[in-house]
Amino acid sequence: MTVRDRDHDLALHLVTDDRIEFDVLVGVVDRAIAGGATIVQLRDKRATARELLERVIALTDVVDGRVPVVVDDRLDVVLAARDAGARVDGVHLGQSDIPPLAARRLLGRDAIVGWTANEPAHLAAAAAMPSGTLDYLGVGVIRPTTTKPDHPPALGIDGFARLAAATALPCVAIGGVAPGDVAPLRAAGAAGVAVVSAICGAMDPAAAARSFRTAAPAAEVLR
Asked: How far apart are CA 5 and CA 3, in angstroms?
C-alpha cells in the first residue's frame, strides 16, 4: 500500500527546524498548516529521547489530526508516543537509521514510512523491499542549503527528474526548494516538496506556506 492508495497529500511537507525554540515552533507549525502545509515532519537532532517524546506529544496536540505527523529518524520515540496515546502517523528514516522494513513491521500497514534517497543505489534498495514497505522517498538536496551542512551533492531539478523517473514510489523534493521551483519539480515528477527554513524562518509562516501551495496550483506529477 502506498501513500497514493491512502490518499495522503504530499504536496507541501513541512520539516521543522530544531534551531527554533520549541515553544515558538509549535506556533509556526500551527500557522503553516493554516497556510496549506499538508504533512509535518518533526526533526530535532538536539533533543534527548525523553525531550523528543514530550515534544512529539505536544506537537500532535497542536496539530490535532489536521494533517499527518511523522517523526524524523526516531522510530523508538514514535512507538513511545503512540503508546502514550499521541496521534503520530509514522516516521521518516535516513540511510543510517532503522531499516524501513523493521519500521513497517513495528508500526503496521497504515503508518507512513518515508525514506531518504539521493542516489541510484538507494532507489535500487527501495525497489528490493517488499511492496508496501515505503510510502514515499525524500529526494535531494535540490540546491545547497544551510539547514543540513553535511548534505550530499546538489541534484538540481534535472538530477531530481532522473531519480524520480527511476522509481514507482512518490518522490518529495527537499533541500533549498523555493516557491519558483514547485512547478518545474512537479513537472519533473515530484509528488510534492519538503521545506524547512523557507517556512520555519519566515515572518509569516502561513503566507510562506501559501506561497508554495499556490506556486503551481494546477501542477500534476508527470511520469
From this structure: 5
